[in-house]
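B., you asked whether I could sanity-check this one before it goes into the benchmark set. Here's the sequence:
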Amino acid sequence: MKSKVLERTPLVRAVICLMAGIVIGDSLQITIPLLPVFAGGVLVALLLWKYEHLQTIAIGICFVVLGSLLIQRQQPERVMTAEISQQQMSRIDRSKTFFLRQRVKLLERLQREGLEGDVYAVVAAMALGDKSALTKDLKNVYSLTGASHVLALSGLHLGIIYTLISFLIVGRRWQMVSQLICILSIWTFVFLVGMSVSVVRSAIMLTIYALLSLGHRDKMSVNTLAFAALVMLVVSPRSLFDIGFQMSFMAVLSILLWMPVFMGVFSERFLMEHRWVKWGWGMMAVSVAAQTGVAPLIAYYFGRFSSYFLLTNFIVIPAATLILYLSLAVLLIPSLAYLLIYIVTKLNAVLSYIATIPGASIDGLHPTLLQVSMVYVIILAVYLLLTYIPANGGYR
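And here's what the prediction gave me:
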């Protein structure tokens, strides 16, 4: 099970350097002009093509300087916000406004079909990214049980939509056209739900996934995630300080790293022969992997750890899939609204019960930034230790 993740992820080093530069640029008042420094660094890196290690160091320094340059160039933009807002909106702003109006119309249709109260709030959040109807009590129930992630649109939701679209249109003879339709559909949905950080990240990754699938290459990898991070941070370096950005990327990174470790417990042959074991173990592996990535951040920002997150995910992930599919179906066949209402009502009831179980969450956690960093160092050390232990073939 020897891992070659670190050897095959050159973009990860670039992202780390870019992040370091953003933090430095935001924390320090740098007076020297960074653009000439960056240009000079690029030139030096090109001249060092015969010296691989020195060139790698030079490229890393370039990304650090680039991060500082990007974050500093955003400072005057905040001063000019009022002036810019009075000018004619750009095409992308007009597009966002158009799609948000369509979202309002879709939400009104759902209400006309009888969705109201907590049922409407959950469907609006899961299917269309509108969390304005969520009450404090409902948010608390989902938070206590570790189910808040299904209320915030992310890779889970886009993955479900991508799978559905692929199932409906993908054909071997027209693969390029079908993948293009998938990409356009995904980005249409991204605009429709307001272009949140986690949705944009997921859309970038799915776009790369779809394009790479045409060449039958490695579609979803740590490098893919790193590329998505590079794009988002170059466009908007302040995204680095967004909680949603941090949790979204840490969850996906943790899944990409830990899933091969967990799935390696059983042999591939055993899993192929026992499909239910494969499904159950896969669900558990994804849940534990994602929680490993975000638990330190949740403790740092919210002071909480949900004890029954594993049980919750076995319930909410299949339910979220049904809710997304039924939400689309209700817009086409209104008579199915009763089924959607029933499932969401039962889901809310089950989560409310889990939230009342003693020890549902551990509150009052207040780790420092240094402590959170050390936890991630320990997690990485355990991962490296496990991946470099020779595999014995797992369970047969």
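One thing to flag: DSSP finds 18 helices and two strands in the chain. Otherwise nothing jumped out at me.
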